[in-house]
Design brief:
By secondary structure, the chain is α+β, with helices and mostly antiparallel strands. Helix content is 40%, strand content 18%. The chain folds into two domains: 8-93, OB fold (Dihydrolipoamide Acetyltransferase, E2P) (Beta Barrel), CATH 2.40.50; 111-296, Hypothetical protein af1432 (Orthogonal Bundle), CATH 1.10.3210. It contains eleven helices and seven strands. One of its GO terms (biological process) is rRNA 3'-end processing. This is 3'-5' exoribonuclease YhaM.
Length: 323
């Protein structure tokens, strides 16, 4: 292992590398001749890179699993606009002498400050019953700890620890600022919906080591999990206040969660049917897309080109300009 760590963001086309990464995903695939090869997704705090290892066997790859730290030896190459590693050796290494922070991407913003911003906005809601419900979420220490550390996605937008909190706080600031422009949108409901819309991701994803989907996440998904969490906290707030929670308010909150993807094709079981729901959908999409565009440009290894490579996910190239 090299003395000075080579991070993903520093890798160059053509270099030989021997380094330790976190194995995010491991897939054995067969080529046209039915020979097995390894497709490994690896990560450190600066980014993700794929590794390919030819002519492997199930037995030889049984020693490594997603979530392991692995030492790899191989050659970096540029393929279809992205760097990858052609791996010649991969072995599991003990994590005892490794610094966990080398492998966990985190928000560049101060998480405790973001959390205070979030609490300030939610406790500023002037509908007393809705504010009481928000307080029930905020006093759940385990939930808020997970919420503070969760990414907003495994690979796409805000895919780093604290990413979900960063995404939600930015949406809250946007929602707050449009309040005067759109008086027909209930700002109280919209702020609560912003907080709740992705809250199910704390159970949809595992993010202690590699960012992966839990069984609950794969089978149910964060929209339905979010509705379950609302039901749980509504029952709690009714017990604490000894008053029934308004039925319509609960319905409107659940609708915000279930419709925020905006289209059936994108996984929403319901289309937005309230002013708050359509506002949340577009604010959410706006933040996610701008963030993804900016990261794609920032992370592009082709420094000489004015354009990024074609992105199948975005269905386009992105213009970087001459600088």
């Amino acid at each position: 292992m090299t003395m000075t760590r080579r991070y993903v963001q520093d890798l160059q086309d053509g270099e030989t590398i021997e380094e330790v990464f976190l194995l995010v995903d491991k897939q054995l695939r067969a080529n046209r001749n039915a020979d097995l090869y390894l497709l490994a997704t690896m990560r450190d705090k600066t980014g993700i890179i794929n590794g390919l290892m030819w002519n492997v066997s199930e037995e030889s790859m049984a020693q490594i699993s997603a979530g392991d730290h692995v030492q790899i030896k191989g050659k970096v190459q540029l393929y279809q606009g992205s760097l990858q590693v052609i791996v010649t050796r991969i072995t599991k290494v003990a994590s005892d002498n490794l610094d966990p922070e080398d492998f966990q991407p985190t928000s560049s913003q101060n998480v405790s400050e973001l959390l205070e911003q979030l609490k300030s906005r939610l406790l500023g809601i002037d509908d007393p019953q809705l504010r009481s419900l928000m307080e029930c979420f905020l006093i759940d220490e385990d939930l808020m700890d997970s919420f503070s550390r969760a990414p907003a996605g495994v690979k796409a937008h805000h895919a780093y620890q604290g990413g979900l909190l960063e995404h939600v706080v930015r949406l809250m600031e946007m929602a707050w600022r449009i309040g005067d422009l759109y008086p027909e949108v209930d700002t109280n409901l919209l702020l609560a919906g912003v907080f709740l819309h992705d809250l199910g991701k704390v159970r949809e994803m595992a993010f202690e080591g590699a960012f992966t989907y839990t069984d609950e996440g794969q089978l149910i998904g964060h929209l339905v999990i979010g509705v379950e969490m609302i039901n749980e906290k509504v029952a709690e707030v009714e017990k604490l206040t000894n008053e029934p929670f308004p039925v319509e308010t609960a319905l409107r909150l659940k609708h915000l969660v279930l419709s925020h993807h905006g289209q059936y094709d994108y996984g929403s079981p319901k289309l937005p049917m309230t002013p708050e729901a359509i506002a949340l959908h577009h604010l959410d999409n706006f933040d996610a897309k701008v963030h993804e565009f900016a990261r794609s440009i920032e992370d592009d290894p082709n420094t000489d080109s004015h354009w990024t490579p074609f992105s199948p996910r975005l269905d386009r190239k992105l213009f970087k300009g001459a600088n």
